[in-house]
Amino acid sequence: AQSVAQPEDQVNVAEGNPLTVKCTYSVSGNPYLFWYVQYPNRGLQFLLKYITGDNLVKGSYGFEAEFNKSQTSFHLKKPSALVSDSALYFCAVRDTSPGGSYIPTFGRGTSLIVHP
Amino acid sequence: KAGVTQTPRYLIKTRGQQVTLSCSPISGHRSVSWYQQTPGQGLQFLFEYFSETQRNKGNFPGRFSGRQFSNSRSEMNVSTLELGDSALYLCASSLAETYEQYFGPGTRLTVT
Q1: pLDDT in tens, B42-52
Q2: Residues of A with CB below 8 A from B102's CB?
Q3: Region B45-67: what's the mean pLDDT?
Q4: Residue A50 sits at the chain B interface (C-beta within 8 Å)
Q5: Chain B residue closest to A42 (CA)?
Q6: Which residues contact A101 (CB under 8 A, 6 or more apart)?
Q7: What span, in angstroms and rounded, lies between the C-alpha atoms of B46 and A60?
């Protein structure tokens, strides 16, 4: 069965510092990987995805993520955090290989708090 | 383009009743998925529809069902409501094969 782990419930970072939100996954086939963000009282928003190609994926709002196949990780990063980046971040995976489940699995979410 | 809309936004039902939630996808999106979000279980996949056909189904009891219409609008139904069904139900739409999902604001269901 596929799974996603976000090992940190909360990440605290000072404004202007780089941030990393961690995600590791487990699938039997080739993963499609996603990051979503949920701002307070707002729906989830798509940030970026990895399907194939370059391991470094760039997305919305200056975020990027690095796919590491050997470590089965897909960490979300941003070079300089903003207070407005404070939100709940979700990592998700789909196994789209032949015979794969195709069912999306989400991590439990990581609360990012950026301090002024 | 208008985003994904869900109605109603809030709902209070009594245990044993049934409920129908509605979702209108972004124009041009033919794939619609439903999720249940709770503090304890997080975000869990219910089902996914594409061109009126259920393409994938999560691990939920048969009390949870859905359908998609020819205009891509979707409904989900929960029968014989239980207290544990209290949750935020999210609908998401996407273009056919991108799997890049756009979520609606959700329907907050409270079962008393």
Answers
A1: 999 999 999 99
A2: 45-46
A3: 94
A4: no
A5: B105
A6: A2, A94, A95, B56
A7: 27
